[in-house]
Amino acid sequence: MFQAKGKTRIPSKLGAPTVLTEEEEEIIVRWIIKIGRAGFPVTKDQVISSVTKVVQKLNRPNPFKDGIPGRFWWEGFERRHPQLSIRVPQNLTLSRATVTESQLRSWFAEVEDHLLREGLFEILQDPTRVFNADESAFFLNPKSSHVVVGRGEKNVYSIVNTDEKECLTVLINGSAGGSIAPSMVIFKNLRLSSELTASVPSDWGIGRSPESGWMTAEHFYEYVANVFEPWLTEQQIVRPIIFFVDGHSSHMTLHLSELCEEKQIILVALYPNSTHILQPCDVAVFRTLKAGWRDERASWRLENMNMEGGRLKKTHFCGLLEKVIKKKVTPEILKNGFRKTGLVPWNPDAIDYTKIPSINEESLSVPPDSVDVFDNDFFNKLEKAIGVSKVIEFRQCQAEKGSVSIEDTSLFSLWLKSSQKSNVIPPEATLTTPLLSSALIENVTVVHEEPGQSTSTPNPRGMAPKVFWY
Q: What confidence tens digit (pLDDT) does each residue in 43-62 have?
């Protein structure tokens, strides 16, 4: 007779079963690691947001409050996956104030090594398969340049409407081969009227973001899924393609990663805080485009002085901007932008490294016992008190090295000094979504629909722009 001795341990886990299976959580973990290595490190909130959408999509019963995983779920997730850790990205420290040549060359080396390992480097040899997109703010009534008036005139006015400081967020997308993909415009409207929707070019994307007016991760997903990818198919662009975007993780979600992998769109994150050096749109497109927009706006106003005093409405904006894009953003400008940034042809030596300020890193360090009233908290409170419109105006003046009105001079000086002291804004910042302080931007969430779906009534292609509601 055989008699067993001792105890045999049966594999088991204490506590209630997890909402997601081990396999499902492993997919989330692989995504976090993969996207972090690609230059898009995600935050805890972004992971929780993605898990929320996964649970909703699976229609999985869960104990989460309002369907959103809480602190206890996150702590358990961390224990189950010790290969993950919370880190502070390097670009939030010194590199936020300056970027070094060695950092950029390291980025080129890392991207090249990644593309070679994946067998994708040859894509860079075909300019028609390399794209870059970025968004920027366009004022309905941009500040005029110098004007001609009678000598001795003491008061020179340019009459505008009360919405003179209102701006719209526009995403521009172009290839190294010189082609322009359809754009997307975001309106800060509670509702989009049929008149406004009809004014947008039929192949563009259109969305609304009532709280902030800025593009969100959901907007960017919808743009790639419903505007950019169909355009690539229509234009018969050979896949896969490389899509250079800025390194801000606010545009990156699990659903976008899955979509791009399925559609053979290879996302490559530009080095953080270096868009003025590495981003073709920043280097070659936006300055020319905004100058053209100011000129076109002025010409339109002269031609329509008898129509409500030459007041330009939102319904006029997209048609005029499309005209400026076709006129000003030439294939030569796009090709030059990719060449100057060293992306196509792939050449780290093509960059003008003199744009990088010669700052001694030691001189930037702050003693731990030093105290400065211009900290991040002060800056956030200051921007919140100033208000969105004034902050947008200040950022526009900073980016274009312009001037503000006399009554705003002192306030602008205080804002500029506090922004630089708090290291919230790089000295040569471009006016884009991620540069606004956290206190000023409210979270914009998707309502009613999952990513990839639109609550607007479907329209045949060519009949109306694609509308995305947030």
A: 888 888 888 888 888 888 88
